[in-house]
């Protein structure tokens, strides 16, 4: 009978085997797939912005955040089911490098191409949404600016910690989606951790590549000056610490941990205790 899911050790091995593509995949293919991931995460971010623009007034802030997280999860669902290269999820490729299946140089090259592609895709999508003028409906303009401003005003250390917590959950979502053997399982695996990180208020670098530029574009169009909401704060005050946090969260708490438990010990002693 066909298995409905992979056990954790099997999922780690599947992630390692999938990571071997980094050694042979053309850079142009990686770039296109990373652009698509930027679009997909931006779809989820835009949907979350629409849903949460006025929900708190009716159901409270906690439930509004839950609703935003629920719809935002469509971004990772599209990445996983349709296939794309997402920087945060690619933190799991560290397990492939730890296993010696790809070099650390190849891993670094993949990360650079993917994060630049994710950034370009997110910026293009932000421009598309700006040009659609949908932000003129309801409270979307004010809400988009407020989201962007809050993110740009975060202290470096706070943004770093929130980035760690975020990608810990994102990589667990990818881990579980890899373990799932059918579409329904993959969707549910993506939904729960993504809903949790958005509802909690953690920081996702690629999502912020959409949220903050959208707020910046709308603020400039409507002649609003918001303290801290600048392009330099977007890059240096948010994307840098959040990206570092995302790397630490995904690599240390998921990629390394499961590689160490299930692959390193498989070749050596059985763990004790």
TrEMBL record:
InterPro entries registered for this protein in UniProt: Aquaporin-like, For/NO2_transpt, For/NO2_transpt_CS
UniProt-listed NCBIfam families: fnt
GO MF assignments: formate transmembrane transporter activity
Record's GO cellular component terms: plasma membrane
Membrane topology, record value: Multi-pass membrane protein
Classification lineage: Bacteria, Pseudomonadati, Thermodesulfobacteriota, Desulfuromonadia, Geobacterales
Keywords: Membrane, Transmembrane, Transmembrane helix, Transport
Protein family membership: Belongs to the FNT transporter (TC 1.A.16) family.
Protein name per its UniProtKB record: Formate/nitrite transporter family protein
Source organism (scientific name): Geomesophilobacter sediminis
Keyword field contains Membrane: yes
Subcellular compartments: Membrane
Segments traversing the membrane: 29-51, 71-98, 110-130, 159-179, 191-219, 239-261
């Amino acid at each position: 009978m066909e298995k409905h899911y992979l056990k954790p050790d099997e999922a780690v091995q599947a992630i390692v085997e999938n990571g071997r593509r980094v050694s042979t995949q053309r850079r142009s293919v990686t770039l296109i797939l990373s652009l698509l991931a930027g679009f997909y995460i931006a779809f989820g971010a835009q949907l979350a912005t629409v849903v949460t623009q006025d929900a708190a007034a009716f159901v409270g802030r906690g439930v509004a955040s839950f609703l935003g997280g629920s719809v935002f999860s469509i971004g990772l669902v599209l990445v996983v089911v349709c296939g794309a290269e997402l920087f945060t999820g690619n933190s799991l490729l560290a397990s492939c490098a730890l296993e010696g299946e790809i070099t650390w140089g190849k891993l670094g090259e993949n990360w650079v191409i993917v994060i630049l592609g994710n950034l370009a895709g997110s910026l293009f999508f932000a421009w598309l949404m700006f040009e659609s003028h949908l932000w003129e409906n309801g409270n979307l303009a004010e809400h988009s600016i407020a989201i962007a401003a809050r993110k740009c005003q975060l202290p470096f250390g706070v943004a770093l910690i929130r980035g760690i917590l975020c990608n810990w959950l994102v990589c667990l979502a990818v881990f579980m989606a890899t373990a799932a053997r059918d579409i329904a399982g993959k969707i549910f695996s993506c939904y729960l951790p993504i809903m949790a990180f958005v509802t909690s208020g953690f920081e996702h670098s690629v999502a912020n590549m959409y949220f903050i530029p959208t707020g910046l574009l709308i603020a400039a169009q409507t002649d609003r000056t918001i303290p801290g909401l600048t392009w330099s704060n977007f890059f240096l005050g948010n994307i840098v610490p959040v990206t570092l946090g995302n790397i630490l969260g995904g690599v240390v708490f998921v990629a390394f941990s499961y590689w160490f438990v299930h692959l390193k010990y498989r070749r050596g002693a059985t763990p004790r205790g």
